[in-house]
Amino acid sequence: MITFYFIIIFTGIAGSLITYYLNNHLKWGAVLASAFPSLLVGLFFYFFPFLVEENLAQQIPVVFIGASFVGMVSNKVLHHPIYVILAGFIFSIIYLNKAQFFNHFGGSLGTSACIAVVAAIGFATVIQHKGFKRKKP
To answer: What's the Rg (C-alpha) of the chain?
Structure first.
């Protein structure tokens, strides 16, 4: 069971980082950077499902696709890959625990990816500003 969680979290981080790199560094554009690696992962587990247990063969492509939504973020929003790793991690945790609750909110993958990116943006803001600062009256 621990290996299942580890594989799902690793897939979430890898999917977000690969898409982020293709989008922001190779300038593929967000849609192509998300779609192409997702297609490759989906086809791989479609043709070779016997390489892992059945549950993983079904869930890895789904997690990768959702994590690729995280990676579509611009480098102007999340400017350092460590924040993309954090967002991919958060997405994976949400997927493992609460994704079924978001079915009527634009899809569970997109909603979970949005929450993960917003959380990473918040974390990045707190780190960059060394905490929250109160405005002087």
So the answer is: 16
Domain span holding position 37: 2-128
Asked if the model's pLDDT at residue 99 lies above 60, the reply is no
Q: For tokens 């480098």, name the residue.
A: 75
For residue 134, tell me if it sits in a domain: no
Task: Establish if 9 belongs to a structural domain.
Answer: yes
Runs of H (alpha helix) within 72-107: 81-97
3-state secondary structure (DSSP) of residue 21: helix
**Ramachandran angles phi, psi of 104, nearest 5°:** -105, 15
Per-residue CA distances from 4 to 7, 8, 41, 79, 104 (Å): 5, 6, 17, 30, 27
Q: Is residue 15 part of a domain?
A: yes
Structure tokens at 98: 């609460």
Q: Model pTM?
A: 0.88
